[in-house]
Design brief:
- The protein is built from seven helices and ten strands.
- The chain is α+β, with helices and mostly antiparallel strands.
- It folds into two domains: 59 residues, no CATH class; 216 residues.
- A hairpin with a 2-residue loop joins strand 2 and strand 3.
- Helix 4 packs antiparallel against helix 5 and helix 6 runs antiparallel to helix 7.
Length: 306
Amino acid sequence: MAEQPAPAGDVPRAHPARWALRQVERSGLFTTQVTWRAPDGTMARWESRSARRRGRVELLDATGRTTGFVEAAPATARRLARANLLAGTAFIVGGGLFALGALLAQLDVGSVRHVDTVYLVGGVFFSLGGYVSLLQASNTPTDLDENGSLSSPRWRWFALEPRQIGWLSAAVLFTGTLVFGASLVAAFASDLTPRQTDGWIWLPDIVGCVCFLVSGHLALVEVGHGVIWRIINDLGWWIVGVNQLGSIIFFVAGLASFTLPATSTDLDPGLANWGTFAGSVCFAVAGGLQLFERPKASPAPTRHRR
């Protein structure tokens, strides 16, 4: 592919002037992969998810064969690793509590208030995981130094980056957790009519589920570079795939929890409970896998070949 003279606004930059922008891969409006070429013919490849989660750049020889990776600068790697640990743990705990709540509801153990409390605490952890994921995406390293090492100049507690697909996926996910949380709070209201139950609890539940599905779709586009459901030999794809499976199951469970006005009962309580249980287990498993998708603890200062 022909070399490009200058990157667009949403494309990461390589500071050494001798590096030529060789290829930019996009999916729709989003940049998912960028490749630079050094004077000796070797190349460095930045990938959106790999940079955000693992803080690394792939090195290739002149034929395009992978020769290794350059890790992020130590300070950047530590920040990304801490955020990843917190987000993954939050999703494990949140998923576990939601699975427990669904199991208690299905087996009719404890009161409705106890089940709602378990769900609410689980929702807090889901929102925490969503915010930390957004925080990590807001600090995706996009600057390459002369060695090919990624760095992020300063830590930001929030950034508006809608042109970055990883950020948009995380932002939609966080929004979904907040909307979903509203339904969990509304569940504590008493003496609701079927119409109120559907409007205050079921509708935010479904909106949150739709947000999860949209976020998962964007994540699949990012990791697959536009090819959805292509199995990739990469941990990131399996994390995203398991999460999206959980989102689909969650959505089906949400539909089954619609309150029928004629009977004031859920459309299918068993499907709602078991679907919530299965979807929550998927989220917890994905959170556990996420703990392994992190930067190296002590990045080695490998130099890019010139």
